[in-house]
Amino acid sequence: MGIGEIIVLIIVGLIIGLLGKFVAPGDKDNIPLWLTLLCGIGGVLLGSVIYGAFGGDGSGGIDWTRWIVAILTAAVLVVIASSLTGRNTHKSSRTRV
Fold it and tell me: Where is the chain membrane-spanning (predicted)?
């Protein structure tokens, strides 16, 4: 993998990570940008593996199915990352007396 491919993967990973954050349920804006980037890159890589495992072989032009799988995979990774980091922005509904 050349330096150009790595730069493209980082840029696409950031975009996919942000889209995954947008698609993820709830308030997932509490994870740092670097973690969003990692979720996006993971979404692209893991999404491609999942896509290929279910018989996806690409198509001419833009393969929308592959990108949808990558975005959904990144969304799952964002939810997992948000849960693991414990940086919840939700306040407890219980009040102290």
Answer: 6-24, 31-54, 66-86
